[in-house]
Design goal:
Blueprint lengths: L2 H41 L19 H4 L7 H7 L14 H17 L5
The structure holds heme C (HEC).
């Protein structure tokens, strides 16, 4: 094999690896978002509406609405999720669950995440 051919071959392999790594990163983020969605369904739905629900002043807003508020970026949610929010005073998530919930919120904000 000539040197040029070897170099080309090398490049193709490197591109293949870069593609796989990129794919794995996206798949990983989606896993986190899916886990976050499940956590939200389990722990947050007694107060937070779903988008399809009729608006109810006695309920907390849908996350689809919350992520469209001004200044709701990843650092904001990461900070918010560390604190208790009224009237949610008694409830605790593990740190990895908090991270998953933030991943879910970011996916929701980015592409209107729906369950996959
Ligand atoms: C006991 C009721 C209750 C539960 C359970 C609850 N929330 Fe809330 N949440 C509220 C209320 C009330 C607000 C304030 C309404 C508003 O921001 O308009 C709120 C607001 C929020 C906001 C908006 C913060 C902001 O500044 O825009 C986020 C994000 C949020 N909740 C996340 C969660 C997550 C994640 C869970 C579940 C792990 C959860 N909440 C469970 C009642 C609740």
């Amino acid at each position: 094999m000539s040197l040029v051919k070897i170099m080309k071959f090398h490049k193709i392999i490197m591109l293949g690896i870069a593609g796989l790594v990129g794919y794995a990163a996206i798949a990983h983020a989606e896993d986190a978002a899916s886990r976050g969605a499940a956590i939200v369904d389990e722990w947050c739905r007694m107060c937070h509406l779903q988008t399809a629900d009729t608006p109810d002043p006695d309920m907390a807003p849908a996350f689809e609405k919350i992520v469209r508020r001004e200044g709701r970026d990843e650092p904001y949610f990461a900070r918010f999720i560390q604190e208790d929010h009224f009237p949610m005073t008694t409830f605790r998530l593990f740190d990895h669950e908090k991270a998953d919930v933030v991943a879910y919120l970011m996916a929701l904000q980015r592409d209107g995440w729906t369950r996959r």
